[in-house]
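Ligand-bound model needed. iron/sulfur cluster.
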Amino acid sequence: MSDEKKPQERVGVYVCHCGTNIAGVVNVAEVSEWAGREMAKEGVVVARDYKFMCSSLGQELIQKDIKEHGLTRVVVAACSPHLHEKTFRTACNGGGLNPYLCELVSIREQVSWVHTDKSAATEKAKAIVAGGVRRVVHHEPLEPLHVPIHPATLVVGGGIAGIQAALEIAEAGYPVYLVEREPTIGGHMAQFDKTFPTLDCSACILTPKMVDAGNHPNITLLTYSEVEKVDGYVGNFVVTIRKRARSVNEELCTGCGICWEKCPKKVIDDKFEAGLGYRKAVYVPFPQAVPKYPVIDRENCTYYQKGTCKACEKFCPTGAIDFAQEDQVMTVEVGNILLATGWQLFDARKIPNYGYGRLANVFTSLEFERLSNAAGPTGGNIVLRDGKTVPKSVAIVHCVGSRDKNYNNYCSAICCMQSLKFAHLVKEKTGATVYNFYIDIRTPGKGYDEFYQRLIEEGTLFVRGKVAEITDAARNPGEEGKLIVQVEDTLVGKQRRIPVDMVILSAGLEPQPDAKEVAKKFGISCSADGFYIERHPKLDPVATMTEGIYLAGCVQGPKDIPSSVAQGAAAAARIVGKIQQKEIALEPVRATVNQEQCSGCRICNNLCPFNAILFHEDRMVSEVNPALCQGCGTCVAACPAGAISGTGFSNEQILSQIEGLLMLNLSSKEAAAA
Amino acid sequence: MSKPKFAMYWAASCGGCEIAVLNIHEKILDVDANFEVVFWPVAMDAKYKDVEAMEDGSILLTLFNGGIRNDENEHIAKLLRKKSQILVAFGSCACEGCIPGLANFSPIQQVVDTAFSTVSTDNPENVRPQPSYDMPEGTIHIPTLYPVLRTLDQVVDVDYYMPGCPPESHQIAAVIDLVIQVLQGKAQLPPKGSVIGAGGSTVCDECKRKRNEKTIKEFGRIQLMHADPELCLLEQGIPCNGPATRSGCNARCPSAGAQCIGCYGPAEGVVDYGARLVSAFASVIDSNDPAEIDRILDGLVDPAGQFYRFNLAGSLLRAAKPAWKSGD
Ligand SMILES: Cc1cc2nc3c(=O)[nH]c(=O)nc-3n(C[C@H](O)[C@H](O)[C@H](O)COP(=O)(O)OP(=O)(O)OC[C@H]3O[C@@H](n4cnc5c(N)ncnc54)[C@H](O)[C@@H]3O)c2cc1C
Ligand code: SF4
Ligand code: SF4
Ligand code: SF4
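Prediction:
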């Protein structure tokens, strides 16, 4: 590198105080003076520090210098590019400088927030500035890529979050494909009896929305369907969807219900009825299902399994049963995608000492919802597993599988309120004594703590402590034939054994079992626990790091219905806003393979999260499709031949930055050479 | 007209580069026909003072092999730089430090202690070499060891780089041919700073083995495996450095059934060979489970040797240890 030309660029360096965020730890004045003096030979012509670079005054400072000092490059040492890269690029643009000639280096997240030694932090800030200056001189002016946005949207998951979003986008006048893998939309909310804290009937508030979604002219409902493949990129996704064969011709079916009445094959419904009730082999999950058409569950249908029966076909008045129907694979083009695939219940069997699956009268929360639901298998009677005994005492165990480092560390957010709801329902319907076993009661939500107060007044008993065991082994008089809840009551400070008739486990919310594969399919990232990662946890909770892909509801993390609906609506607003722009500017950061240098080693072939890399067998070289590449840099870093280079992230840029960072450590000869 | 002058020197190296030059067989006669060999310690008798007496720039071509280990190496490097028009860093040691450069992992005292106390060292008084020693005849000197080994271009300006441990004879012959053609006005020299006598891609480019998308579940040692002779070694879990190593050797090792160990150094534009290779291997490890990944990586028994065998002294890692300024 010793013989490269000295840069002829005129660089301006701006060191931000960020109030005391940076200035409290880094001597910002020293950094800017140092840059002005020591980096002059690297092209720095002005260096300043300023209280808030992101303020309009800070930005104007840059713009003024661009004009007065003829700056050709700008380095801002402030916060992370995540936050303000766009701000400073836009400022440069306003000053007449191509926005990509600006480099934002972080001395807040990477320095002041993580160090306490002021002089060492100041030295580190200098090194980071030096890296930025070394890098920025290699920047090239770039123009954003403009691509049109397809007006249609794909919504995956027809729970309350997905339904809300689909309706809002459709109402705004744009087409929506709503893909749901179950035979009906509605999601988990359709299973519930009442909803906290207002105790309105879940079906009463949900089904009108389901019907609206089913009837909306702008919504194409694709139930019993799943996304197989996603190609393309923001504005222009091409999505392959498999619509599984229902074995029912939707054109002819009127939803009259004769088929499921006549079907002789009863199947335990472990989906909608949580295993407590039955359905037929041809079925709709529940009477208000949308769409109204049944499906034949081929794994359980006698005809599919044994070759005879066809009762449904015989009785169907419109001849809608179609045993030969095949899956339909279709592709749709959409501009944006919303993932609202929700949650699954933590499997309480994983905690053997709670006895679920072994002790008959230990129920999960979803089972209880069905027990309590007037449309459920017991007609809303809260009874023990025998189907008739009304419990006289009920234990509700909070945080099952949540806030527990053996299972999930996180709080499932809804279980406290859901447990309180159950306590109320049990009390109201059976008059039983109800115990709530909790670690902490968490009721932050509108009307939530008031609901808790109401429960206390209703006489629900609260025991603070993590339940150790639920057993049917009686030790003391009065325990025979009961379930005994063994717990350390931390308020009283002693072990207690509380005998009850019924236990309800408030199991936590977990990501869907296929969350990781689905994330991969859509090119977004999952956190370690499997929930999808939003672009910014506070400021951008419904977008993802992948342009054009949005999140709503529990797919992003456990939450209640109001928050799921709010996210659905927020995501819809974001998407509609994008569609209305008609065009989207993409970061012009793309990878390219130098065909001469590529050895065809195929290291990169499997790596691209956007499937942008293809391998030419004939020439034994790899190539990046620029229309698919999102510039993530994965392949650039992986290519051992250095054959792939990313715009804005060339080897030269990165290495110069590293050299800048290490400047004080490299030999003086090398440091002097630019 | 007198013939253009040629020199070749060995600094910290094993001598293999010299043999490789002689191994060009009858082509060596072309060297003799076209050049006057003025300095080549391994092949002819010459004194440093003869070189010192030469006019600056009077040697047309100097092939310098070996790294800069001591003050003598440095002195001759600087001397030959001054006297030569074209200075070529010849072979892996001069280009990137090679095996002698691996000593940079250890403090120099430890290196010396190891060298003078091995089982096969006959050193009953456990002496260590001293830079100067008083004898009845006067004081004698030996060169002073530096705390780290440096590459040639970390000491002087280098015109061309010729990689390989040693460079392949056919490549040496081709370079000599080229220089002769330049002398005859039939060809032009490549731009200063270029790598010569090597390819522009990596070893895989010349390797004939079949290859697929790579997914590695296990690394193994070649001597313990029955490798498929047709299939890419890396895909079989044998840590082949071919993907990161500059082409030019005709994929000698993989063709012979052994993995590439990287003697031709990094590909064009790549500064840190080891980092490149680490990130390439890491990219194709087929697991998301940290414990399993650790287990897979345990299959790489000697990571330093795997990734930095030839290029430690030239790698970016050197910046972590500014040893030649501070002692060690
Ligand atoms: C027992 C219990 C009681 C609760 N009670 C209340 C309450 O009273 N009040 C309240 O505010 N909150 C309550 N909650 C929380 C509430 O369930 C959630 O807030 C809500 O269900 C979130 O909706 P969603 O649309 O994000 O997810 P879901 O309801 O899970 O919907 C997701 C939908 O996506 C579909 N899907 C999943 N993967 C795919 C795929 N790959 N392709 C296509 N479709 C897919 C699913 O089939 C489902 O229909 C309760 C939770 C529990 C466990
Ligand atoms: S930079 Fe490489 S890995 Fe990333 S999107 Fe582009 S082609 Fe794919
Ligand atoms: S990793 Fe690099 S050299 Fe290997 S196939 Fe991909 S582009 Fe070519
Ligand atoms: S990794 Fe090794 S064996 Fe595989 S193609 Fe490259 S050089 Fe050949």
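Chain B touches chain A through 41 residues (CB under 8 Å).
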